[in-house]
Structure formats: structure tokens, C-alpha cells
Amino acid sequence: MLNLSYELNFAFALAPAVLMSVAALWAWCSHVPVQRMWRRFNALALTALAFSLVGLASQLALVSAYSTAAPGMEGWFAANQFGAWVSLLVQLLGAAIGIYSSNHLKGEPRQPVYIAALAAVLAAVHFLLLANHWIVLIAAWTAIQYAMRYLLCFYKDRPFALLAAHKKMVTDCVADLLLIAAAILAWSQVGSGSLSALWAYIADGHASATLAWSGICLVLAVIARTALMPVHGWLVQVMEAPTPVSALLHAGVVNLGGYVLVLFAPLLGVSLAARWLLVVFGLVSAMVAGLVLLTRVSQKVHLAWSTIAQMGFMLLECGLGLYLFAALHLLGHSLYKAHNFLNASSIVRECDRKLITGTVRNLGLSMVVAVPVALVIVFALQSVMGNHAWPWWWSAVLALAWAPILWVPKAEPGRSEVVPVRMATALATAAFLTLAAGIMERAPIGAGNDPLTAAGVVALIGMGAMYLGMTVFQLWPQSVVTVRRWVYAGFYMDEGYTHWVLRLWPARWAGAGREVKLAPWSLRESAWGRSES
Q: What family name appears in the similarity comment (predicted)?
């Protein structure tokens, strides 16, 4: 009976991958009218969504009854609890994006290619979520990036779309090499490419420099895959692709780095250097991207920088050992970002409103008192809930994250009643988020925590510095004009990265189809960095 339950659970988990593979092959080989092709894809996507939901319910029931779920197909694949959550999330996004795209792309000539690539991405993601072997993990992640290229280059006549895809391809190739290196190191130490064997080996108390280096290679690969600085530029430039592609990329594909880190938490536990790499790269990316957000007005570009900041924060959580919070962050961010991209056109109405009413400035006093008020809310509610699983420094980081919610706009003439209402709403929102974090911490996600206190203090200082920078930018914008220019350009990291990518791996991406000949690049020759002398 137990074996039958395991087999059914694995069959439910595998079904979405199979259905999306069928959808991809069908779209690639079929010559039916496009509208019929969309109907087939949407029907298969919704069926796969139903299987993902049943698979999650089956997984939770198995874990509740037997505390674990067995691997399938001789250890190459395995269903896991967190993977079941992400599978449901990804398929939900895939079905929604498919329905949205069928209307959004009406009249476009390359829709069959789009359908096939979208289905292939979803299938590869599901296979990655079931990976229980290094070979499956690497193959699935590589397949995702290969299929994404067809979506990113949907409009072949847009030079910057081709440039972004080329930069992403180069970054992904480096990430693939790092993943292969991580696999070789771990495989040579454990004697098996099975991830279950790796977890068992580490659980027996084995730790070595070889495993530590494997963890470092894995972390560097994830940093490249999730577009952290300084390899982040392509994520901003893929705005040339259709809006639903941006939603799929930002809400699903980029987030997979967080899933892999949660999955490999045991390996990170024996590689302290790898965790510190996550802390450094994640904190820098979150801080810089968070400040860049204040200088951008384009809605899609603003969302892209928001993704970079969120990915930095998610990887920071993994480096700090807060894998449960990283898992919750991944699920919440995916839903939030998918909604924002698919609803991006509504920003036109918001801009019209601002043109009529004017832009509302925040009250300076509220920015000053927001942090202490947020600290009181977080620590008080944590004490009431009896939740002692959070380190004190993480509570302070959460308070800094909630603090901007407590910023109150200046009272407009004749509308003084707005400020008290806004204050009450902000306080209620901060309290709700804290309570939600405490409740969700007990949810059956399938991830734990292993806090790293020294790194937590560093993260707290960094987040405090970012909040201070945000406040200065809001209150005294004219006094930091030069700094704002550098921040607007992301400190020119992408310009330097683009220069070296095209020098080492030239590509035909310009409108005329010619290979671009680059002059030596320097900060002094960039737009904002040009010297006045």
C-alpha cells in the first residue's frame, strides 16, 4: 500500500512535465490554425494545473503520514514537498500567461514558435523540480535557458532584444560550466550523482574541502542564473520581449535559483564560504537595485529592477540560512510579479491621475519615525505569538522592510483627513505582514532554517544603510544629484559587463546585422560619467 502511494504521488508530480512536453511537440510539429493551437495548449496547461494541485495534496498527505516521499525512476527523479508547491505555482502562472498571450499576441506571425517555446519552458521547469540527480538538474536548467531564447528573441528585428539574449546566453554558459564543476566535485566525493546520496552523505557528518568547493561553484552558478549584479543587465534589457514573456521570466524562471538553493541547503551547510558569497552578492544587489528603483519611471524597467532587488534579498536569505523565509519569498514574489507585469498597462491610468492631481510627497517626519514604529510592531507581535524561531537581527531586518509602508504623504489643502486614514492603513498593513510571516513560518513548505548570526548582523547594517539612502533621496534630492546619476546607471556595472561580453564573444545584434566594433570602454566615456573638463 505504501509503495502504491509513493508511485501515485510520483505519477501526479510527473504528469505536468509530460503534458507540457506533449504541448511543446504538438505546437512544433502541428500545422493547425493558430487559434486551435492556443486552445490545445490552454487545455493541456489547465489539465497540468489540475495534476499539480492533486500532486501537492498527495505530497502533503504522504509527508503527514510517513514523514517523507520516496524517489522515483531509480533515483533520477524524486517528488519533494517544496517542489510540489513550486510546481503548482509555475503551472498556475503558465496557464494564466497562456490565456493572456492568446489575446495579447493576436495577429503576430510567429505564434506557433511562441507556443512551443512556452510549453517547453514549463516542461523543463517541472523536470527540474523533480531532479534527484546532477545530470537531470543540469540538463533541465540548460533546456529552460535554451527554450527561453526563442521567447526573448520573439521579435528578431529588435537589436536590444538580441543583445540581451546574447548576454544571457553567455552568462548561462558560464553558469552551466560552474554547475558541471559543482557536480564533478560532489560526485567524486560521494561516489554517486544522486542528490539523495549527497544528502545522506552529509547527514552522516561528512564534510570536506571538496564539498565546500562544490557549494561555491553551485552558488556562483545560481548568482549568474538569477541575474544578480554585475551580470544583471540582460534582465532589464529583455523588456523588448512581449509582456507575457517578461511575466514568465521574472515570476518563474529567475526564481528557480532560490528553489535550487533551498534544495541544496545541506550542501550549503558544509560550505561557509558559499553562504558568505550569497550574503555579499545578495546584499549588494538588493541595496543597489533598491536605490535604482527610486530613479526609474518606466513601469516595466521599474519592475525589472524590483526583480533584481528581490532576487538579491532572496539569495541573501539563503546565505543567512533562512531557507523557509526564502521559500515563502519565492512563492509570494512570483505571484506579485506576474500580476504586476500582466497588469502593467494600468500604469497609464495612474500616470493620467498624477498629471491631474500632482505627485504626492511623503512627510519627512514619517520617514524618521517609521523604523522605530516598525521595530515596535515586529518585536511586540513576535512576543505575543510566542515565536522564538526568528533571530533578533532578522526581526530588525523585517522592520526595515516594513518601514517604507509607514511613510505618510503630506496633507493636501482641504484633505487633512487623508493622513490619519493613511496612517491607520499603514499600521494595519505592517501588523498584518508580521502576523502573516509568523503564521506562514509554520506552513508545510518543506524548508527549514540554519541562521548565521555574523552574516545576519552584516545584513542588518546593509539594509539600514539602504533605508538611509532611500530617505536621503526622498528628502534632499537636489543635494545628491551626482550620486543619483551613478545610481541611475547602476554604477555602470552593466556597461562594463556588456563591453567584455562582446569583446570575448562578439555577436551580430545591431540593426544592420554587422558585427559591432567596440572602442575601449571606460567610465569617463559613458553618458553620466563623462568628465566636464
A: Belongs to the inorganic carbon transporter (TC 9.A.2) DabB family.
